[in-house]
Amino acid sequence: MKKLKKFLRFVVHHVNNRTKRAQLFLFGFRAHPSTAIAWSVSADGGGDGGRIFIDKHSRLDIGVILHANGNVISIGKNSSVNPYCMIHGGGGVTIGDGVRIGSHTVIIAANHIFDDSTQFIYHQGETMKGISIDDDVWIGTGAKILDGVLVAKGTVVSAGAVITKSTEPYSVMAGNPAERIMFRKR
Ligand SMILES: CC(C)(COP(=O)(O)OP(=O)(O)OC[C@H]1O[C@@H](n2cnc3c(N)ncnc32)[C@H](O)[C@@H]1OP(=O)(O)O)[C@@H](O)C(=O)NCCC(=O)NCCS
To answer: Can you list the domains of the chain with their CATH numbers?
Structure first.
């Protein structure tokens, strides 16, 4: 009985994955067959050739939202995005290999322009520089990663941190705005 349940779980998981990938393909989503894509993931290239690429053995958990907004979101190998994370493509988002992204993290590669106080903000356009997250980064739950930053290799972003500037390799960042609280031991 246990073996049958295990087998059925495997089949359901496999069918879910294939169906989900096929459904999202229409919206510019390209994931390696070895990836695990939860049924409730929302992914959209956003027209104008926007694309989302997910490499081998990576995982998108329940409620993850990936909206490329006409640009590219790419996620490398063996990376995981935990429940209810939101990634907004804007100027493009590149995530490396072996990255761990805690639940409810928001990565948003865009800013509204608000220089002219006589006009509505939504009339003034946006700036979009792009965000890069290198290999072996761990982002704690509820972090925010803002546009134009490089989260360097091996960085740890603590829970709730707001990353407004690029980080140094193997640093540990905390707070709002995030500051380096230590380096990882090497
Ligand atoms: C970053 C983290 C790993 C550091 O853990 P640690 O090495 O045990 O460090 P400490 O708890 O000793 O904290 C070191 C200092 O940073 C501060 N700090 C730690 N986490 C912080 C946070 N999220 N925000 C602000 N300050 C923080 C501590 O208060 C402490 O300050 P002090 O030296 O003035 O007392 C941990 O605090 C964290 O945020 N983990 C994320 C958990 C998570 O999201 N898990 C999801 C799994 S995907």
So the answer is: 2-178 (2.160.10.10)
